[in-house]
Amino acid sequence: MPKATRPDLAAMLVPLGRALTEAERPVLDRHGLTMWAYVVLLGLDEEPVHTQAALAKAIRADKTRIIPVLDDLQQRGLIRREPDPADRRVNLVQLTAAGAHLRDRAQHDIQQQEQQLLADLPTADRNTFLRVLQLLAERTGTAETQA
Questions:
Q1: Sheet of 79-84: strands edge to edge?
Q2: Domain range enclosing 84
Q3: Are 27 and 113 a contacting pair, CB within 8 Å?
Q4: Are 43 and 59 in contact (CB under 8 A)?
Q5: What whole-number distance in Å separates Cα of residue 55 and Cα of residue 93?
Q6: Which of 39-48, 91-100, 117-126 has the lowest mean pLDDT?
Q7: Which region, left, alpha or beta, applies to residue 84 given φ > 0 means left and ψ of -120 to 50 means alpha?
Q8: How many domains are contained in the chain?
Q9: Which of 4, 26, 117, 135 has the fewest CB within 10 Å, making it most exposed?
């Protein structure tokens, strides 16, 4: 067996992911968001209305784990939760304009911070890296659902 010429993908990506998550924390703190709250706000971007169960599945969270997060976001006017008219046992979750605005500001600040990390890369390499990373995230079903 020939010796590997590079580390495994997880060996490279997991530490990078942890470092990026830690770098996001102060940004989210400035916006008054927890990581899970931010993930929920990002998860609500794809469709205008989700059931709580569908949202939990989309963001890969246990549906009972996100209930306190949803409670907080609702109390702050960032989401609306209403019973589904077709099945009153089910709650529908929808992003409010205030929630979308806060999500967009936080995401803008996070991505500006990421640009600093990427700034030393040649433009072609940076663009290729981002394109391939997005493609891999889409293939694995993790695009836009993990913070």
A1: 49-51, 87-95, 79-84
A2: 9-140
A3: yes
A4: yes
A5: 8
A6: 39-48
A7: beta
A8: 1
A9: 4
Q: What percent of the chain has pLDDT over 90?
A: 71
Nearest to 40 by CA among 146, 122, 115, 135: 146
- DSSP for residue 55: H
Q: Are 41 and 102 in contact (CB under 8 A)?
A: yes
Residue 73 lies in a domain: yes
| Predicted structure pTM score | 0.85
What residue ranges in the chain does DSSP mark as E strands? Answer: 49-51, 79-84, 87-95
The verdict on residue 4 lying in a domain is: no
Q: What is the mean pLDDT of residues 27-47?
A: 93
In a domain, 145, yes or no: no
Q: What's 22's domain CATH number?
A: 1.10.10.10
CA distance readout (Å), 109 to 24, 44, 64, 121, 144: 9, 19, 29, 20, 16
